[in-house]
Design a protein that fits this description.
By secondary structure, the protein is an all-alpha fold. Helices cover 76% and strands 3% of the residues. The protein has a 3-stranded mixed beta sheet.
Amino acid sequence: MVEISSNSTDILTLQGFDLSPQGVYAAFIFAMLSYLLIIFCNVFLMATIIMNKSLHQPMYFLLFNLPISDLIGSSAVFLQLIKEILLDSRYIEASNCIAQAFFVHIYWVTGALILSAMAYDRYIAICNPLKYSTIMTNSHIAKIIASVWLVALLLIGVLFGLLLRLPRCRSLISQTYCDNPSLLALVCADTTINNIYGLFITAGLQVFFLGMILYTYIQILLACFKNKHSDTKSKALQTCTTHLTIFIISECLGLFTIISYRIKQLSPHLRRMIGVSTLILPPTLNPIIYGLKTKDIRQRINIAIRKTVNP
């Protein structure tokens, strides 16, 4: 391992996985292939939406932001992780660690807000179809998308503003990547305000996210059962299934991560694997699930593949 002889808290140490020499090669291949798969799937989904005018609709404009969020989160972690494996070094500069944590939290917040916005869009489309075109205008969609990113930047900006004012007296990060709780553990001052604000963001977003999802999809299901047209009902339920699949994956991974921090007897390696999985599975599965489950996107992908194979 590369050694850095410095007692300064400007250099932090990540608690990565203890890998054998053979395990290092396997970890590097896994990390590189995972990151390339995430890039390919998300860029392919974005390109499909951009290149097909039939997909230039409110739902797909909102969906377009999900791979952007996924790429931000995965890039923040994978680039550092691959560098760590290549150089056999767990050291990271404090500024890089803070930047990584900032983008990881942006990924978490924007992901929840984008899924909430998409649930709202489906609610309007299915429960108020005659008003959909007048409500979900391009300007309204632009305001929703801008609000998602501005709210995320504001909430996380304040979170890290509160963090940066505090002095650090420790340098060991208990995770394989940097986040606000692990950075807060390095502080040697009163963190009450930070803890209250962090709890406020977490609880507030969770209540908003779950409330929006539950309300909109209950209304959608009621509207579907009242609808006598089987094809309309089938299409609506298929769309809801896709969104709910993404929602369930996101919530389960978040729940497992929280539980893993509470169970002290849990293996540190397993805890770190669960933490990393929240930045691997959603960015990989989101574009695949939307590509396979959403009929319009699936048809466009099939057309693109046929054109590539038979030019």
